[in-house]
Amino acid sequence: MAPAIAFPTTDSSALTDFVINQGNGVKGLSELGLRALPKHYIQPVGERIDVNKIITNESIPIIDMSNWEDPSVADSICDAAEKWGFFQIINHGVPLEVLDNVQGATHRFFGLPAEDKNKYSKDHSPSNSVRFGTSFSPQAEKALEWKDYLSLFYVSEEEAAALWPPACRDEVLEFMKGSEVVIKQLLQVLMKRLNVNEIDGTKKSLLMGSVRVNLNYYPVCPNPELTVGVGRHSDVSTLTILLQDEIGGLYVKGHQGEDSWIHVPPIKGSLVINVGDALQILSNGQYKSIEHRVIANASKNRISVPIFVNPRPSDMIGPLPEVLANGEKPIYKQVLYSDYVKHFFRKAHDGKGTVEFAKISS
C-alpha cells in the first residue's frame, strides 16, 4: 500500500473529482493509505452491522447439485427458496477453472490504470450496457458505499466482443455461458413447485430474458465498522448466481429478530444462489427475496461476481397464472419490469423497500 499522504477528504468536490470523475474509485482512495474514513462514507449507525446481531449458530443451506433431478434435491432447493431465499450449491457443473479465470479477470480489470477504467464510466462509456462506477447510486445516497463495480448487460456476442473491456470480456462470457445449464436446472425445479411444468418461450423470457454480470471490488478500508461494502437490499432479479472469493463478508438477514444477520462463508468452488424480487412477485410471495449486505474489510481486498438473471425490460411481471389457479389472491400487481428496475436505482439501498412498489394496496 502507498504511504499515507494528505488528501482533502473533507472537500466533497475534490473527493467526487478524484473518485468519480477521474475514475480512481474507492480503490484509488484505499491506495492513498488513508488513516481515517472520509466522512462521505460514514454510514448512519442504523445502517452499520451490529456485531451483537450476527447469528453464529445458523447458516444458509448447502445443496449438492450432482443429482439435481432427485426429488429430495428438488425439495431442498424449493424449501431453501421459500424459507431462506438464499442457498449455496456445490457440484453444479461449472468448472473450477472457469470460476478461477473470472476472478483473475476481475482483479485484472480493477488493476488497470484509472484512465483505462474511466473509459467505461457513465460519462465516457460507449454503451449503456457497459458501466464502471462506484458505490450504488451516488446521486441519491446520503452516505456512499465502499465498493467499485463494472456492470455488463448482455445484449449479444457481437456487442460484447466490440464493447466489453478486453481485460475481462472473455472470462465473463465464459462464466455466463458456463452457468446457463445450472440456472435452467434451478428454474425448472423452482417452477415445478409452482405448478409450471414446462418453461415455454413466454415463461423463459419472464424468468431469464435478460442477463447482467457485475464485477465487484471492495478494497481495504481504514474504518470498516463505520461504513458498508453494500447496504442492505434485496436484488431485483429472478435469480442471482454469485461467485465470491475466499475473503468473506456477505451477510443475509436471519430469522431471529428484526435485525439478525447470518454470514455466508466462502466455500471453494461453490456458487451462492438467491431469489430476487422478480421471482418473489412471480411466485406471489411463495419464494422470498431476502435482504443481504456486504461489510467492508480492514486488511484484505474482496471481489465478487454476481450474474443477475432477469425478465426482459419490456416484460410485465406479476403473479403467474399457475400460482393463482387454485384461487389464491394476488399480493402483487402487474408491473413493467423496466419501471421496477428504475424505481430500484433512483434511491439508496433501503432493504426491501423496492418490492412495495409492486404490492397491491390493501
What does this structure look like?
- The protein is of the alpha+beta class and 362 residues long.
- It contains twelve helices and 14 strands.
- The chain has helices at 12-21, 25-30, 71-83, 96-110, 114-117, 157-163, 169-178, 180-193, 201-208, 277-282, 321-324, 337-345; strands at 62-64, 86-90, 130-134, 148-153, 210-218, 230-233, 239-244, 250-253, 261-263, 271-275, 292-294, 302-310, 316-317, 335-336.
- Helix 3 (71-83) links the parallel strand 1 and strand 2 (86-90).
- Helix 3 packs across helix 8 (180-193) and helix 4 (96-110) packs antiparallel against helix 7 (169-178).
- The longest helix is centred in the first third of the chain and has 15 residues, at 96-110.
- It is globular.
- The relative contact order is 0.16.
- Pfam families: 2OG-FeII_Oxy, DIOX_N.
- Keywords: Dioxygenase, Iron, Metal-binding, Oxidoreductase.
- Residues 209-311 form the Fe2OG dioxygenase domain.
- InterPro entries: DIOX_N, IPNS-like_FE2OG_OXY, IPNS-like_sf, Oxoglu/Fe-dep_dioxygenase_dom, Plant_2OG-oxidoreductases.
Mean pLDDT: 90
Structural class: alpha+beta
Biggest sheet character: 8 strands, mixed
Principal-axis shape: globular
Query: What proportion strand?
Result: 15-25%
Which residues form runs of ≥5 with pLDDT under 50?
Answer: 1-6
Determine the number of helices (DSSP H or I, runs of at least 4 residues).
12
**Whole-angstrom Rg:** 20 Å
Write the element-wise H/E pattern from the N-terminal end onward: HHEHEHHEEHHHHEEEEEEHEEEHEH
The termini sit apart by 55 Å
> Which bin fits the share of residues in helices?
25-40%
> Strand order within the widest sheet?
1-2-10-7-12-5-4-3
Give the tally of β-strands.
Answer: 14
Keywords: Dioxygenase, Iron, Metal-binding, Oxidoreductase
GO molecular function: dioxygenase activity; metal ion binding
Cofactor: L-ascorbate
Pfam families: 2OG-FeII_Oxy (PF03171), DIOX_N (PF14226)
